[in-house]
Amino acid sequence: MRTNTRPRPAGFLAAVLAAAALLLVPAAPAAAHNSLKTTTPAKNAELDKAPTEITLEFLQKLDPAFTTIVLSDAAEQKVPTGEPVVTGAKGTISIDGALANGTYTVAYRVVSADGHPVQGSYAFTVADPAGAEAPAPTPAGSSPAAEPTTPPTEPATASPVAATDNDGGGIGTATVIGGGVLLVLVAGGLVLLRRRRGTA
What we know:
The protein is built from three helices and eight strands. By secondary structure, the protein is an alpha+beta fold. It has a domain at 32-132: Immunoglobulin-like (Sandwich). The chain has a four-stranded antiparallel beta sheet with strand order 1-3-6-5, with no helix packed on it. A four-stranded mixed beta sheet has the order 2-8-7-4, with no helix packed on it. The radius of gyration is 53 Å and the shape is rod-shaped. The relative contact order is 0.12.
């Protein structure tokens, strides 16, 4: 008696569908892109105590070489922080120093393991009752003017050498005139003496 070994159509179809389902199920999550899951501090949070670090958690693992997290204050000035530390799907930065009361913005740009870039930003507020307000920017022209280091110039006085030269010039002119008159008198006297001798 021969046994029929040919597969039944219904059983064969069920095996094909099961294999296709096994191939499609793991591919579904891999096709989804990375995105931000949670943040610490939370988005739009109002904190009564300044945080010491910021942590962003994503759906997929991050590439440490392409993870950037920046913290800025209300004046859009960068707040000093440490370099991002990546652990799996989390990126964390430590804050250097204490944050004053005010609004801060966290900006991020990361690249997940599949190479897809993700970027964005969100804000939170520090409202510590015992904290200090952020200092207002100092106007550029408010610094006191430097005192002059050069003493005032004294008024110019007449040079004594010039005065001496002017006086000397007047004395020389009078001497020349007097000498000329004396020569004329001497010459006139000599002429008179010759005439008298000629008539004698």
